[in-house]
Amino acid sequence: MTLVDKWKMEGTLNDRREMLVRLASKKFGLTDEERRLIEDCDDLERLALAIDEFVFAETKKQVLAKRGLR
């Protein structure tokens, strides 16, 4: 993997983390610990699945539990 590829991947990770934090914060509210769980996740697929789950979730626990974020 080139340095540029690593930067792109990190950018994508940061974008997904930020999106999930924003959505969950607005809909449910997040504790500092929950925010850190999302911000510390470095798995693109887990973040994508959690974002997908957000659409139908009725609780933040459903979102954070998706693929091990909680």
Task: Give a written overview of the molecule.
With 70 residues, this protein is an all-alpha fold. The chain has 4 helices and no strands. α1 (3-27) packs parallel to α3. The longest helix has 25 residues, at 3-27. The radius of gyration is 12 Å and the shape is elongated. The termini are far apart.
Notable features of this structure?
70 residues, mainly alpha, 4 helices, 74% helix, 0% strand, elongated
What's the short story on this structure?
With 70 residues, the protein is an all-alpha fold. It is built from four helices and no strands.
List the helices and strands and how they pair.
Layout: H1 3-27, H2 32-39, H3 44-56, H4 60-65
Helix pairs in contact: 1-3
Order of helices and strands: HHHH
Shape: elongated
* Ends distance: 30 Å
- How would you classify the helix and strand content by structural class? mainly alpha
What is the alpha-carbon Rg in Å? Answer: 12 Å
Portion in strands:
under 5%
- Residue share in helices? over 70%
Residue runs with pLDDT of under 50 for 5 or more positions: none
Mean pLDDT across the residues is: 87
Supply the number of helical segments: 4
Largest sheet: none
Number of strands: 0
